[in-house]
Specification:
This protein is α+β, with helices and mostly antiparallel strands. The chain is 34% helix and 24% strand. It has ten helices and ten strands. Strands 6-8-5-9-7-10 form a six-stranded mixed β-sheet, with helices on both faces. It starts with a helix and ends in an 18-residue tail after the last strand.
């Protein structure tokens, strides 16, 4: 099977919302009047971002999910995406599973594939996603203000638990491992929550490289500091609820674990009811885990307010 046959069989579908989809040198996108275009690009490399044993349908889902998560952090509505795919060879069962998982999530969010490229090479998936957001309404990293609450969506740390189980550093019961592995391989982008938080949240970022590291982007952009409740953050690890794991590993997973693709965001205390309502409207759990401070830097404390001595980092693609 040649390159163009591969594209036609597994990735070409009629455009329904975009003026022009796959098949020309460029796709055409037309945001609605009064909207700004939100654009994000992410690359997934085998062995760096995913294991070779991952189910191809889950990988197709994740490849798009990580990009939709960026749109969610901006409060944008998905429109379309492009796919650049390097493959070691033409593996038709793999392509069928990958495209099925990819398009299932794309259809769920009304996001069309409108172009891209394929070539032979080490397995590498690069997606660029396009969304729209009302002019001036995008959620940014730079809007946090002193006194704001810090919130997180969904659950944290489960993907890191699965990774540690794969590495053999800890043992999980079979059902717990399956749950954690699902969170690692098939994350749920919080697109509906991001849109519901427009006008309520003061800043937002998606948690891809670890809570501490990604919250740090908000602090740097907003020129503020923060106090984070480690126990509140650890309390949202779903898979570990009954595993009897130690506090240190749970904190590491919740605060330093990557691949969560949840949103960490800030909002004024007066907006707590509005944040809770946004969570209900989007069927997404939201948990308050800290506050924004005037003093620079990040302070991590336990539920009683005592400093936590353990050090936390974040994922670095070049380490």
């Amino acid at each position: 099977m040649g390159e163009f046959d591969l594209i036609t069989r597994y990735f070409q579908r009629p455009a329904k919302r975009s003026p022009l989809g796959v098949g020309d040198d460029c796709a055409l996108l037309a945001p609605a009047p009064g909207m700004q275009l939100a654009v994000s690009c992410d690359m997934l490399v085998e062995g760096r971002h995913f294991l070779s044993t991952v189910d191809p349908a889950r990988l197709g889902h994740k490849a798009l999910a990580v990009n939709l998560s960026d749109l969610a952090a901006c409060g944008a509505k998905p429109l379309a995406f492009t796919l650049a795919l390097a493959l070691p060879g033409v593996d038709e069962p793999w392509l069928e599973g990958f495209s099925r998982g990819l398009f299932a999530l794309a259809d769920e969010h009304g996001c069309e594939l409108v172009g891209g490229d394929t070539t032979r090479g080490p397995l590498n998936i690069c997606i660029t996603v396009f969304g729209e957001v009302p002019a001036g309404a995008a959620l940014l990293r730079s809007g946090a203000r002193v006194g704001d609450d810090i919130w997180v969506s969904g659950t944290l740390g489960d993907a890191r638990l699965a990774l540690e189980a794969f590495r053999g550093t800890l043992a999980l019961p079979a059902d717990v491992f399956a749950q954690a592995r699902m969170r690692m391989e098939q994350p749920a982008p919080r697109v509906a929550l991001g849109q519901a938080l427009r006008g309520t949240a003061s800043s937002a970022v998606d948690v891809s490289d670890g809570l501490v590291g990604d919250l740090g982007h908000i602090l740097a952009s907003s020129k503020v500091g923060a106090t984070l409740d480690a126990d509140a953050a650890t309390g949202v690890i779903a898979a570990a609820a009954s595993c009897g794991l130690g506090t240190e590993i749970l904190r590491t997973c919740a605060l330093s674990g990557g691949d969560d693709y949840e949103l960490v965001f800030t909002a004024p205390p007066a907006a707590r009811a509005a944040v809770e309502q946004a969570g209900k409207e989007s069927a997404t759990r939201v948990t308050r885990i800290g506050r924004i401070d005037a003093e620079a830097g990040l302070r991590i404390v336990d539920a009683g307010g005592a400093p936590v001595a353990q050090r936390f980092g974040s994922f670095d693609h070049f380490v």
